[in-house]
Write a structure and sequence with these properties.
53 residues, 1 helix, 3-stranded antiparallel sheet, 15% strand, alpha+beta, 23% helix
Length: 53
């Protein structure tokens, strides 16, 4: 998966455009992003990431 920080979009390997700069996403980071987007406000940042992320 790849993240487009300017457009705010996430692309898979098969659909990523070649003409924009993307950031590769590790599965742990994608999971953290999904948690932030879908969590209730009180639980928004109640998670931890491994040190190697």
């Amino acid at each position: 998966m790849y993240f487009d920080p300017l457009g705010g979009r996430i692309y898979c390997t098969g659909c990523k455009p070649a003409d924009i700069r993307l950031i590769p996403l590790e599965p742990t980071l994608l999971k953290a992003m999904r948690h932030i987007v879908y969590s209730e406000l009180e639980k928004l940042y109640s998670f931890t990431l491994p040190d190697d992320t």
